[in-house]
Structure formats: structure tokens, C-alpha cells
């Protein structure tokens, strides 16, 4: 199974729980409707990666930066930076036909993560920043989320469950777009404007 790192130790999530359309401005940039209830989809363990790899055989792929959380005992245990890679053209075709998104969202290495660090404080001031080739592309945090992380957990538990060490990806702010091989991503998580975590990825 694929693993991620928390406090320098490997853990093996059974799945990645993702929520879509959780930032108003991101909904607008993709011309989507605001949902009445949280939109969930799952990525399998095989989608997890600690390297940023452009999906082979595809001409276009979008990045989506997300505050990501490790869940233990149905509570937030750790935070990390996540990238939800999306084959946008494939996703659009599937959505237009009313079909599931798996081909666009759940391919190998489509959930890219930094290391995670434990959370023992109020998460309401957490935010992320994503720079690509030195340019700020995405910035947003818990304060801008339509459904806050603990509300997402409560909703998920009405129909499914978290195994310990599963990952919750909490949605992406505006600024998603295409990327290419050899792009340099600098990913930051901040709390009260203080950098807690920073990770650089070179697209392979």
C-alpha cells in the first residue's frame, strides 16, 4: 500500500476522502452550481503519491491545492498540503453525460501530499499558498470554506466511515489550472500567517 509521512513516521491510509465545490470563487471559475449538500468522492490508496508526476498519455492536467487532514478516531490529527490532480477535459465530458468522475480524479498518483504535522490547536486560521514557477496561483483557507472540516467529517459519518489515518482533502480555492513537466511547485501551509510547513515539488 501507498504511505504518507506524519512526524517522520510512515502511515498507510486506506483511502482519501475528497470534497468538491467547497469554495465559492472556485465554483464560479468552473461555472458550476453551488451544491445544497457537500459533494463527496473517494480516491483509492493507489492514487496517493509523495511525488508530483504528470499523468502519462495525457496532454492536459489541472492542479487543485487543498488543505489535507489525517483523521484518527473521527477527529483531525494532522495537517498537510495536498494536490488533487484532475483531468479536466475528461471530467467535463463525464459530467455532461451524467457519469462518475473516477477516470478524471482517481488515476494513479492523482493525490499528491507533503509530509503531515500534528495539529493540537484551533484549525480555523489555517490557510494554504501555492506558487508555481515563483508565481502565486492559489491562496485560501478554512475561513473561506463553505463547509468547515469538522462539518465535513460529521456529514461523511452519516453515510460512510473513516479508518484511522485516512486523509480528508477539504476542497480547493480559486486559481486552479494546467501545469507541465519541469514546473516547480512551492506549497505552504500557514496558521495566523506563520508558515507551518513548506514543500517543493518538481513535476516529473
What's a quick, concise take on this entry?
It is built from four helices and 15 strands. The chain is mainly β and 204 residues long.
In terms of structural class, how would the helical and strand content be classed?
Answer: mainly beta
- CATH topology category name: Fumarylacetoacetate hydrolase, domain 2
- In round numbers, the mean pLDDT is 94
- Rg to the nearest angstrom? 16 Å
Count of all domains: 1
CATH superfamily: Fumarylacetoacetase-like, C-terminal domain
User: How would a textbook summarize the main sheet?
Assistant: 7 strands, mixed
What proportion of the residues is helical, as a percent range?
10-25%
Give the spatial strand order of the biggest sheet: 4-3-12-7-8-9-5
Sum up the overall morphology in one term: globular
What letter string, H or E per element, gives the SSE order? Answer: EEEHEEEEEHHEEEHEEEE
Work out the strand percent.
35-45%
Low-confidence stretches: none
Name of the CATH class: Alpha Beta
User: Which architecture per CATH?
Assistant: Alpha-Beta Complex
Give the count of helical stretches. Answer: 4
Care to count the β-strands?
15
How many angstroms does the end-to-end distance come to? Answer: 21 Å
Amino acid at each position: 500500500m501507498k504511505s504518507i509521512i506524519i512526524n517522520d513516521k510512515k502511515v498507510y491510509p486506506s483511502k482519501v476522502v475528497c470534497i468538491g465545490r467547497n469554495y465559492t470563487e472556485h465554483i464560479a471559475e468552473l461555472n458550476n452550481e453551488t451544491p445544497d449538500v457537500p459533494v463527496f468522492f473517494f480516491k483509492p490508496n493507489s492514487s496517493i503519491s509523495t511525488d508530483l508526476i504528470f499523468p502519462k498519455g495525457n496532454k492536459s492536467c489541472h492542479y487543485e491545492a487543498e488543505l489535507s487532514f489525517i483523521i484518527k478516531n473521527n477527529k483531525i490529527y494532522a495537517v498537510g498540503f495536498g494536490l488533487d490532480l484532475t483531468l479536466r477535459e475528461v471530467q467535463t465530458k463525464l459530467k455532461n453525460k451524467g457519469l462518475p468522475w473516477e477516470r478524471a480524479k482517481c488515476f494513479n498518483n492523482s493525490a499528491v501530499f507533503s509530509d503531515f504535522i500534528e495539529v493540537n490547536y484551533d484549525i480555523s486560521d489555517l490557510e494554504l499558498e501555492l506558487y508555481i514557477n515563483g508565481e502565486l496561483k492559489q491562496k485560501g483557507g478554512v475561513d473561506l470554506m463553505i463547509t468547515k472540516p469538522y462539518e465535513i467529517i460529521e456529514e461523511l459519518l452519516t453515510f460512510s466511515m473513516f479508518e484511522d489515518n485516512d486523509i480528508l482533502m477539504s476542497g480547493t480555492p480559486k486559481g486552479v489550472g494546467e501545469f507541465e513537466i519541469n514546473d516547480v511547485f512551492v506549497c505552504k501551509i500557514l496558521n495566523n500567517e506563520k508558515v507551518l510547513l513548506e514543500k517543493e515539488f518538481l513535476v516529473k
